[in-house]
Amino acid sequence: MLRVRKRDGRLEEFSKAKIIRTCLRAGASKRVAERVADEVERRIYDGISTDEVLELVIELLLKHEYPKAERYDLKRSLLRLGPSGFGFEKFVARLLEEYGFKTETNVIIQGKCVEQEIDVVAEKGREKYMIECKFHNQPIYTGLKEAMYTYARFLDVEGYGFTKPWIFTNTKFSEEAKRYASCMGIRLTGWNYPVNEGIEVLLESRGLYPVTILRIEKEVLDTVVNAGLVFCRDIVKACEPKLRALGLSKDEARRLVEEAKKVIS
Q1: With DSSP H G I counted as helix, E B as strand and the rest as coil, what are the percentages for the chain, rounded to 5?
Q2: For strand 187-189 and strand 115-124, is the pairing parallel, antiparallel, or unpaired?
Q3: Distance CA 148, CA 150 (A)
Q4: Buried b (16+ CB within 10 A) or exposed e, 226-250
Q5: What mean pLDDT comes out for the span 196-204?
Q6: Residue 178: how many CB atoms within 10 A of its CB?
């Protein structure tokens, strides 16, 4: 029996079906997904890390369907958002706007006890959310402490019409955080949580692939992300002349647009 070592050190049995499902979700054909899973099974060893499996899947997908390989790498593309200099709170605000929310970022509010800076204020219909954004550049859990901290801040600003606190993270929530949030009425959105409504689903269902999913030089990505071009569709919409106005060369701008088109096509 082949086992895969997860990031927390636990070992679980290797599953070809899981590889196939993930490839299909990324948009690969069933034929390609099954071929990739077969080759992965032949090449891995007992105790291989999940990161090594990911690298192998991406390598194999690149041989068959380039855009699908990039989509498979969505989780790590979110981890790369931080070092680019673009605030995760602005990324969350842009995402929510795609779902019909009106948003503001970095809002200063005088609470009952102390001044509070709210990462994102999001309104839709009768709901007004106080959103706390928790970004991690490593795949670590957002835990109970962050959930309790968020609820304490929500209580301090309850006079400003907020209906519910909401925590966004690019990674996973601990089980303690989930239980506390359920008890206290905190909305949570993270990787694969809630089931079928996690941040990856919100992005994929609208084709909102972060520009950090592209295999482009870091300096180029930093330039466009700092200019507010967060998603691949932003790059395509901006077109080459606007990208060159940011300081990119003609070749850099052209390649960036081409790569973004491949992902969203």
Answers
A1: 50, 20, 30
A2: unpaired
A3: 5
A4: ebebbbbbbbbebebeebeeeebee
A5: 92
A6: 19
